[in-house]
Structure formats: C-alpha cells, structure tokens
Amino acid sequence: MAEARGVRAWIIPNGYAGLYNLEQLTELTALDADRRDAIDCTKAGSVAGHSRIKIAAIPDEKRYERIIAGLRRFSIDGLVIAGGDDTGSVVVDLAGRGIPVVHAPKTIDLDLQTYSVGGDTAVNRIARFVDDLKSTGRSHNRVMITEAFGRYAGHVALRGGVAADADCILLPEIPVDFDVVHEHLKRRLVGRLRAAGGFSATYTVVVAEGMTTADGGTVTDDSVAADAFGHRKLAGAGRYVRDQIQSRLDDDREIHQAMRELGMYVPGLHEAPEAREVVPAHLVRAGTTSAFDVGFGKQIGAGAVLLLLGGISGATPVRGDGGLFRPAAAAL
Fold first, then answer.
1. Pair 180, 245: CB distance under 8 Å
2. Backbone angles phi, psi at 196, to 5 degrees
3. pTM, full prediction
4. Which residues contact 192 (CB under 8 A, 6 or more apart)?
5. What stretch of H or E contains 190?
6. Mind listing the domains of the chain with CATH numbers?
7. pLDDT in tens, 253-293
8. Is the confidence at residue 96, as pLDDT, over 80?
C-alpha cells in the first residue's frame, strides 16, 4: 500500500528499543520488493523483532528528543507500530508528543478491540491442543486441564474451548466455584465411564491464565518482578485448577464408590481419577499463522498507511461492519 501511494517503508528493528536507539543506527532495511519477498507471512511472530520497553520508563530525560532526532535522521514521517494494549499505550504517548503514529492491533489475547492479528491462530491452536489431549486423557481416564493465554480476557480460552467441545471453561470474567465444577465433572466423567463399561473416558477443562478465583483474585508468580508496564506475571492457573479438582476427587466418597463398582479402585494407589494440567504457553503463538490472520494483517497494515496519509495519528484501524475491513479512526 505504501509503495502504491509513493511512500517508502522501512523496518525499525527490535521494537521500542530500536526506536529509542534509532539515532545511533548506521542504516535501516527498506521494505522494498526483494525484502518483502523474503518474508513468509504464514509464519507467526515478527521478522523485525520486538522488545517490552515502555518509553516513558526509560531513565533518560531526553528520550523523546532522541527518538525525534532518529526519525529525522532517516527522514521518517510516520510510524506504524504493531502490538497489543501495552504497545498501544506507548502509541498514545508518542502521538501526544507530536510523532505521527498508527497502532496496528496485533495480540493473541483479543483484549484490545473487536479483533487483533493473531486471535484466530491462537483460538485454533488451543482447540487443537485440547482435542488432541482427549486421546491421552481417555487412555488413563484422566481429567485434562489446558491453560490458555489471554491475560485478563477470556476470549481465546472460551472460543478455543468451545471449538474443542471442552467440558468446562474457566474465565477471568466469571469467578470460579470449584464445588460446582466438581459436581459437573463427577456427573459427566462417571457417566462416561459407566457408558463405556469402565473402559475409557476423559473430562476436559480449559482455563484462562487470568482466571478469577472465588475471592476475586488471580494466580500470579510473585517470584518474578512486575514488568515495565506494571504487570505481574500470570502463571500457575492450570496447576491451581489441577490442585482444586484433585483434592475434591480424592475426598469424594461417591467417586471412590463409583471406582469400586467399575472395577478401577485400588486402595491407597488408585482411589480416584487423576487430574493433569498442560501449559502450551508460547506454542500457542508459534509456528504457522492462519489464513484469516495473514489476510487481516495485510489489511490492517494497508489501513494504517491510509490513516497516516490522511493525517490521522494516535489511532488504530479496526474491523468494519459486516465482516468487511476498513480503515477507521478509533481512539485508543
């Protein structure tokens, strides 16, 4: 789109770290025809590299002057910056300081706006993981728990879980009552075992990493300091759910009796079904990108160019009505 409109495009490497250090770089890579041919759009991630840097947090009083000087050095008149909500907060910061910039929404968390590049890919990968885990779950009559990315939004967990016919989906938006989960699990898993004559059955759970506990909290890794944007690392939701489910299974006499009736009970060794958690983590955002995300990514990039050429800054292209895509100024 930039080339068609007579605009030259360049790659600033390594995200905001590269933008801050732009002034001292000796050269930039042009996004000419040859360089574009070397980019495989079906691969997830970024060929430019990223960095979790908050410009306002850089301990340099002249950080903004330095960035502006770097842009002038390479005659850059506007920026298209891809990323999620933290990236967008810096976009607002830069735009407020007179730097023409448009935010291209790219986050698998789907916590930014109606849709962002990467969401479809993440949902499909979660659905595949959950569905594949059913085979090993059935082999051992286990409860299989899959932890999904998404931070404080449950879209990826919900959509991926629904697509995989998961039995239980735990979201940040709805505090979890594990007694309710246990009763549902017991009814479905024991029912399936009885229907299978005691042979094989499984029960699948998808839990968002930002799952809300009954007291309104989230599961975080307090051994890791907050990042530059003030976020605590969300880690351990799958393990937490596993512990909650396993303790209830182990203490439920009805479960023990069902195991006896099905010929599965072994005192002290196998008194209740076992729960296991799986954390795909970055596998969800690695590998091959879905065709939908490839197409949306190209459209959103083209929309960003049109916004800049229209003199619009501090905005993001959004998905339009009727499933069509159009560049629209949406305040961040």
1. no
2. -90, 5
3. 0.85
4. 201, 202, 203
5. helix 178-195
6. 10-117+289-331 (3.40.50.450), 123-285 (3.40.50.460)
7. 999 999 999 999 999 999 999 999 999 988 888 889 999 99
8. yes
Read off the pLDDT band of 222 (50, 70, 90): low
| pLDDT value of residue 284 | 86
Determine which one of 32, 40, 93, 109 is catalytic: 109
Give the H/E segment covering residue 87.
helix 85-95
List phi, psi (to 5°) of 105.
-70, 120
- From the list 214, 206, 127, the residue with the least C-alpha distance to 174 is 214
Mean pLDDT for 40-67 is 90
Contacts of 209 (CB under 8 A, 6+ apart): 147, 148, 149, 150, 151, 219, 234, 235, 237
The structure tokens listed for 207 are 């839990």
Residue 109 among the catalytic residues: yes
- The residue length of the chain stands at 332
Contact 146, 126 (CB under 8 A): yes
